[in-house]
Amino acid sequence: MRVDAETSGYSCDIAVVHAEDGQFYALDDECSHESVALSDGFVEEDTLECPMHASAFCLKTGVPETLPAISPVRTHVVSIEDGHIILHPGTSQPDAATS
Ligand code: FES
Question: Does the domain made of 2-88 have the CATH classification 3.30.420.10?
Answer without folding.
Answer: no
